[in-house]
Amino acid sequence: MSSSTSGRVFHAVAGTVSFLWLLPIVAVLITAVRSFDDIAAHGLASTPQSFTFAGFGEAWTNGGARAMWNSVLVTVPTVFLSLALSSAAAYALSRFEIPGRRSIILLMLAGNLLPPQILLVPVSKLTELLGIYDTLVALIVVQVGFGLGFYTFVLQGFMRAMPNEVQEAATIDGAGPVQIFWRIVLPMTRPALAALAALAFTWIFNDLLWAITVLRSSSVMPVTPALLALQGQYVSNWNVIAAGSVIAAIPTVAVFLRFQRHFISGLAVGAVK
Amino acid sequence: MDRRHFLRVTAAAGAGLLVSGTASCATSASSGPVAQTAGTATIQSNLSAPAAKAAIEALVKAFNDRKGSQASVNTVASETFRTQLPSYLTSANPPDLFTWYPGSLLKGYEEKGLLLDVSDVWQTMGDYPQAFKTLSGRVFVPTTYYWWSFFYRRSNFQKWGVTPPKTWQEFVALCQTLQSKGVIPLGMGAGSDSPWTASSWFDYFNIRINGAPFHRELLAGKQRFDDPKVKAIFTPWREVLPYTDPNGTAIGFQEATTALLQGRTGMLLTGAFFADAAPKDALDDIDFFRFPIIDPKVPLAEEGPTDGFFASSKSPHVKELKEFLTYAASAEGQEVYIKNSSGTILPTHPNAKDSGTPLVQKGRAHLKEAAEITQFFNRDSSDALQPTADAALIKFLQQPDQLDTILADWQKAAQQVWSS
Q1: Are A233 and B78 in contact (CB under 8 A)?
Q2: Would you tell me which residues 149-168 of chain A have a C-beta closer than 8 angstroms to some C-beta of chain B?
Q3: How far is CA A161 from each of CA A109, A155, A185, rounded to the nearest angstrom?
Q4: Within an 8 Å CB–CB cutoff, is residue B47 touching chain A?
Q5: Using the 8-state DSSP alphabet, how is residue A236 labeled?
Q6: Could you report the per-residue pLDDT of B90-147, keeping only the tens digit for each?
Q7: CATH number at residue A129
Q8: Mutation test of the interface with chain B: which of A72, A234, A241, A273, choosing the one with the most B Cβ atoms within 10 A?
Q9: Does A187 contact B80 at a Cβ distance shorter than 8 Å?
Q10: Do B277 and A40 make contact, defined as CB atoms within 8 angstroms?
């Protein structure tokens, strides 16, 4: 009796919370399929009196398609490069007696504690000096540089927890450091890599600050500044902006769904088979 | 087996991405405006609203079709533009032209030597009224402007049996009538992301009671916000506060527009750009009247914010950009722009045709009758002073009895802006 009551209470509370959680998303989805005249005449909060996919078409053709492609061009190489570099760094820092490794890790972590806002002007000037200002290369370099510290910190923590016996066994079997990294450590780090890849993808894909700091042409802008550019100085077409947001959310949602399976299975199997 | 397969796939995919990544970056590097092609003037534009964006693109296309110098336009979000403008201007290789408005911000950049002297473009603009010349200085070329007034729906005024007021007494009487009919007389959209719209009320009370010269001096820091003359303008404002939408500091500008169109509010003090937020079928029903005269002795002033272009002094394309500015200042260029815009803006060239709708023609006459034109609070002062006005005016709308403290705080905040 009491357990079924508490069950009902739990469902009622959890249901309400999920409903509140999903409400903004539902609102965006509904706005995305309304027409501008409907919103202008009746307001954003009114019951929809139109149904159209025109907003999606407009968002896609009004710079959306190019911006999506730019985002992919930035995000995918950045995720790959940052994880490749930071896993190599983490391997060295966690499995070998490098002098001052503790300081190196702390230094990398300290870099992450700096608020990015104070670095905006120097970064913008630096990319100009290097001649890569307003190119996607600049954005990739900046994103890799800023992500590296955190990814290395997480990965070295994960790698340090691996049993020493595994490495020793591999050494006895004749494997060198590179082989151990490639064949033993990296595969065992898979759950952490998958989780970090999903996180990094979301962060980089959703970043706005660095994009508008090192880029200035609309032709190279990724999806977040492009979404911002759908807002007018005075008047915004909310249906187009909502549709654009829905389109922009698809890749991150897809990546999360895909990688979710990876890190859950990785965690369940554990490090030692 | 499984693990090895995973590794092979990741490695292959990674290598492929790396190649495609660098290849695509190389192409984007050559297409960006930093690698400027000789002879093309690049315009950095903040006109991100769809209608305005289409208009400037049409203007650039018409310019390029003349087969003279070439120009290209790069539109970024107006918010991004505003925050990045200093870094655009100080970068080693800035864009050649920028969309903007005249005002103290521009004067600051001019003093730092960042702006190009375009007085030879002004040689071709002999027809322009002196007011635009004074406003622009040597660095700015105005192309369009618009007006502020009380907008209303003609059909609603007919339904309620009321007519537009001329004097302050008529205006207050109109508010009373509308309230007795269950309509909120005065709309307001000073919440959300548009607290600055409350400044239009402040501007108008000040230019109606103290006149435009005092208003400019006040915003330039030569007068004080806690001056009794400034305090006096809040007396008529307080008189109409009971008729103002009580949600006015909660809802944004676009929602206030919707409230007006639906007839929940009677009228709205706003700029002509608000027509962009109206459905097309409502446009013919929209009319406006002048902010009522309070003191007939004060010369008539109206808000008529001006927009246009300025150029960077570092530009290597001086000939091309001046050719573009000359075209943008010509009647032909402005007609192209207006034809492709949403149509409620006015050309600065006195002989250029506007979109010809009754609303726009009335708007043009409305500004022509004014002895003085003010720009808007932030344009006549600075973007740094605007937040101090927002804070003070929103507080006044919510707690009108705190006026003395509000004005003292405002003066303190403004002094910090002026002295920095």
Answers
A1: yes
A2: none
A3: 19, 10, 11
A4: yes
A5: B
A6: 888 899 999 999 877 788 889 999 999 999 999 999 889 888 888 888 999 999 999 9
A7: 1.10.3720.10
A8: A234
A9: no
A10: yes
Q: Which CATH architecture has domain B148-303+367-419?
A: 3-Layer(aba) Sandwich (3.40)
Give the minimum alpha-carbon distance from B244 to chain A in angstroms, rounded to a whole number.
Answer: 19
A218 closest CB neighbour out of B22, B75, B92: B75
Q: For chain B, give every domain's residue range.
A: 40-143+307-352, 148-303+367-419
Which residue type is seen at A144? V
DSSP string over A85-121: HHHHHHHHHHHS--TTHHHHHHHHHHHHHS-GGGGHH
Task: Answer whether B74 sits within 8 Å of A233, measured CB to CB.
Answer: no
Residue B129 in contact with partner chain A when CB distance is under 8 A: no
Distances (CA, A) of A235 to A57, A61, B48, B113, B273: 19, 19, 10, 34, 8
Give residue for tokens 């090192």: A214
Paired strand residues for B152: B287
Residue of B nearest to A83 (CA): B14
Pairing of strands B306-311, B140-145: antiparallel
Ranges of chain A whose pLDDT falls below 70 = 1-3, 262-273
Measured between CB atoms, which of A39, A70, A232 is closest to B52? Answer: A232
A28 belongs to a structural domain: no
Strand duo B148-153 + B286-289: pairing: antiparallel
The distance of Cα B289 from the centroid of its chain, to the nearest Å, equals 20
B104 neighbors B309 (Cβ within 8 angstroms): no
Q: Is residue A47 part of a domain?
A: no
Give the chain A residue nearest B2 (alpha carbons).
Answer: A187
Nearest-CA neighbor of A52 among A62, A64, A68, A38? A38
Long-range CB contact pairs, A105-111, < 8 A, 24+:
A105/A152, A105/A153, A105/A156, A108/A148, A108/A149, A108/A152, A108/A153, A109/A149, A109/A150, A109/A153, A111/A149
Helix pair A238-269, A2-32: axis angle to 10 deg = 140
Tokens standing for A172? 């006895």
- Between positions 6 and 65 of A, the ones with CB within 8 A of B are 36-44, 58, 62
Q: Using DSSP bridges, classify how beta strands B372-374 and B301-303 pair: parallel, antiparallel or unpaired.
A: parallel
Whether pLDDT at B393 is above 50: yes
Q: Where are the alpha helices (H) located in B198-262, listed in sequence order?
A: 198-209, 212-219, 228-232, 234-240, 253-261
Q: Is the ipTM of this complex over 0.85?
A: no
Number of domains in chain A: 1
Is residue A81 in a domain?
A: yes
Asked if the domains B40-143+307-352 and B148-303+367-419 are classified in one and the same CATH topology, the answer is yes
pTM of this prediction?
A: 0.80
3-state secondary structure A34-69: CCHHHHHHHCCCCCCCCCCCHHHHHHHHHHHHHHHH
- Residue A260 CB contacts under 8 Å (≥ 6 apart), including other chains: A198
Most distant CA pair in chain B, distance: 92
Q: Tokens 């527009």 correspond to what residue?
A: B257
Q: Count of CB contacts below 8 A, A vs B?
A: 155
What residues form DSSP beta bridges with B71? B41
Range of the domain at A197: 70-231+247-269
Q: Is residue A142 part of a domain?
A: yes
Q: At the topology level of CATH, where does B40-143+307-352 sit?
A: D-Maltodextrin-Binding Protein; domain 2 (3.40.190)
Question: Structure tokens of A228?
Answer: 């911002």
* Residues in chain B within 8 Å Cβ distance of A233: 46-49, 52, 78, 273
With an 8 Å Cβ cutoff, are A233 and B279 in contact?
no
Residue B162: what pLDDT? 94
Residue-averaged pLDDT of chain B = 87
